[in-house]
O-phosphoseryl-tRNA(Sec) selenium transferase
Amino acid sequence: MWEKSITKKLENLGIPLHMLDRSSIGLRAHTKPIIQLFEQRSIPDEGWNDDQITQLLYVLSHLDSDKDPQSIRIGEREGRISTQLLSNQIGGFCHGVGRSGELAAPQPKAAGASLMQNLSNKVSFSLLKSLGLSNIKSSLVVPMGTGMSLGLALRGALAHFQINSTKKNMVLMTQIDHNSPIKGIKYIGAEIITIPGHFGKNYYASEGVYTDMAEIESIFQKNSDSVCAIITNCAFFAPRVPDNIKEISKFAKKNELIHIINNAYGVQSSDILKIIRGAIDAGKVDAIIQSTDKCFLTPVGGAIIASPNSELIQTISKSYAGRASAAPAMHLLTSLLSMGKNGYLSKMKQQKENLFILQSELKNLAENLGEKLIDCGNKVSCALTLSKFSQDQISKLGGFLYNLRVTGPRIIDLNKSEFGSCTNKTEIPFSYVVMNAAIGVEKKHILLAIQMLKKAFIQIQDK
Ligand SMILES: *Cc1c(COP(=O)(O)O)cnc(C)c1O
């Protein structure tokens, strides 16, 4: 951010003007990406270094009123903090973002934070579009996880479509055995009717847990007076497959239902994004929710709500209560600028390779154990059957893996609890263990996890 006028001011210090002009080129190259971001408002191709990101955040946060050395701050909320440490932890955005009536409204005391939030929205929007969601029109970074964001999106959609939610307070939800989306929907006072999952051959893979379109229609018909929405899922642990969202999208359009897709960690797979794009084109998709930490390698705390309807995004923004923390938007902007589009694409490529390694290693292990990998085509995780193991052995597996310092595998012991399978034990004839090759995982952790899994199998067989 070096201008010619500055060079002129320095000319009488003994350094020739041409030398200063020539030297400022290097400095300007460093700040050029910042200027380009202001102009293009989209994800840069190449990632930035930490100095560049720090400089951007410094410039933006110093537009906030609490940084003005002459400002007379007499309100009850003035971005006051007890220690500089807090300011450092929040990138200087002590005032937060939004106004009481709208999450994305410009905050007069925090022009810089508002700009930062806006850039975070635009940069993530451009990345989502370029990765495959080319038909979304708008997106919003929200300071809440996936479950709460589902509730917020539904609340906004009810307001947008002017649906009387006391009369119509039922929501169809395809079976996702995860408490957070269920709680997020219940939080806004809606009631859930679960569309049960089944196991077997389906529209997506030769076997896996899926939901059935005819069953969705018949459950809807029984409750059509009170149902306002359907929540579908595109990303869940193997052997769950994505819902048939193209058909559900047509069904939602025909029956004028709100349709929200829980795409918690689906951004890493171009195949999943393609399915969503197809669903948007085929019928009615109102909002798509993705977790910022699972998709974009930020600390936990944020989500992106995307939509093919920009007015709906505005209503969702207006449904948020109060001022919000700037941290999730800042974390996302920081992460995306550091990776750039090319950095993200290369992580997606690595994810695919890692999934392939995980699949082939687990396949070998399965053969040795007389087990099998469930052939569900999941784009992130693998499920290995545990049909030859006793319930006692299965119950020990998790503990052994934990003690071997492996975090993340999930053991679904259907005799103990069906929760997690997205179906029940009359459908699925074996227990299983799930391992993930999610974006950001290191290849060596995949290989080590397999080693430890082998070790744990030996340990449980020994006992
Ligand atoms: C992780 C996850 C959630 C929960 O996300 P939170 O951010 O903890 O609310 C919900 N649904 C699915 C499918 C998930 O994978």
About this structure: The mean pLDDT is 96. Residues 145-147, 176, 178, 180-181, 233, 235-236, 262, 264-265, 291 surround pyridoxal-5'-phosphate (CB under 6 Å). The CA atoms of residues 36 and 390 lie 61 Å apart. Residues 343-462 form a domain with the Aspartate Aminotransferase, domain 1 fold (CATH 3.90.1150.10).
